Amino acid sequence: MSTGSALPTRSSVSTHILDTSVGRPAVDVAVYLAARSGRDAPWQPLDGSATDADGRCKDLPALPEGTTHVRLDFAVEPYFEKKQADAQQDAPANRDSGAFFPEVTVTFAVTPGEHYHVPLLLNPFGYSVYRGS
Q: What is the pTM of this model?
């Protein structure tokens, strides 16, 4: 008789954003999650969230059963616009051009039952992502 529990079949996702231009978390960035079950299947929009004071989204929804691909959409332009407005208020001579990339979209494959932490390292003129732990 087996008393072991069944393996989880749903994947989960978490993320956080670090603004590398200032070495701090990026606060209040909207993040949207979508999933699909198969390379040619349509994207199913799920819910979104926004980063907290630590740059983390702690309330992204669970992925649907059968998810094979995930898409994270980061709406970074409003973050940089606010950052630019704050900088101009403090130092009007500082006229940064804002964000070169107004949105960042990260798409990745998932295996059922695994957790995926996908950090975004962000600055006004570039970004990098990786699979964290």
A: 0.84
Residue 6: HSE in the Cβ half-sphere, 13 Å Cα cutoff:
4
CA quadruple 83, 85, 91, 92: dihedral positive or negative?
A: positive
Report, in this order, helix, strand and coil percent for the chain, each rounded to 5. Answer: 10, 40, 50
AA letter at 96: D
Q: Residues 89-106: what's their mean pLDDT?
A: 70
**CA distance linking residue 43 with residue 31, whole number of Å:** 16
Strand locations in 20-79 (E): 24-25, 30-36, 44-50, 56-57, 69-75
| Predicted pLDDT of residue 3 | 53
8 — phi, psi (to 5°)?
Answer: -65, 145
Check whether 97 has a pLDDT greater than 70.
no
Residue 102, token pair as written in the block: 């107004």
